[in-house]
Amino acid sequence: MTRKLKIDTGGAVFGPYSPGISVKEHIWLSGQVDVSVEGIEAQTRGTLAKVDGLLAAAGSSKSDLVKVTILLADIGFFSTINEIYSEWLGDSMPPARATYGVADLPGGALIEIVCEAFRGCEGA
Fold first, then answer.
1. Which of 39, 41, 68, 95 has the fewest CB neighbours in a 10 Å radius?
2. What is the mean pLDDT of residues 111-123?
3. Which InterPro entries does the record match to this protein (predicted)?
4. For the chain, what is the radius of gyration of the CA atoms?
5. Is 6 exposed, middle or buried (0-12, 13-18, 19+ CB in 10 A)?
C-alpha cells in the first residue's frame, strides 16, 4: 500500500497545510519562507536552510530536486537571489525553475520557495 507521509521539522506554518508531503519517492514541499530575519539576502539563505531541513527529514537532499518555484515580493531581487541560489546549489544539477514577482507574500516575506523532488534521483 502506498502511503502519504507528512514531512515536518516543527517550524511555524501560516495555515492548515503540511510543510511537505511524500508519496513513495516523490516529495513536494509547500512554499517556505523565513520571516525571522530581515532583508532579501538573509531571508533567501534562511528559506533555503528550511528547504534543506525538510529535504533531509524526507531522506533527500537538494541534489534530488527536479522543480523549484520562487516567488519574490519584488522582481528586482532576481539577481541577488540568483547568486545565493547558485551558491546553495553548488555542484548539484540545477532543477527546472520558475521565478515570479508577486504582490504580497505570507507574513511579509520577501521570498517564498516551493520545491518538488524525487528521492534518490541525484542527477540520474
1. 39
2. 90
3. RidA_CS, RutC-like_sf, YjgF/YER057c/UK114
4. 14
5. exposed
Q: At what angle do helices 78-89 and 40-57 cross, to 10 degrees?
A: 40
DSSP 73: S
Predicted confidence band at 123 (pLDDT cuts at 50, 70, 90)?
low
Domain 4-10+20-118 indexed as CATH 3.30.1330.40: yes
Kindly state the cell numbers that stand for 53: 531541513
Distances (CA, A) of 19 to 10, 22, 64: 9, 11, 17
Q: How far apart are the first and last CA of the chain?
A: 26
Cell of 96: 527546472
Residue 26 CA to residue 9 CA, distance in Å, equals 18
Question: Under a CB-based contact definition with an 8 Å cutoff, are residues 111 and 71 in contact?
Answer: yes
**pLDDT tens readout for residues 40-79:** 999 999 999 999 999 999 999 999 999 999 999 999 999 9
Separation of alpha carbons 35 and 21, rounded Å: 22
Closest CA to 70 of 19, 21, 110, 37: 110
| Rounded-to-integer distance, Cα 73 and Cα 80, Å | 13
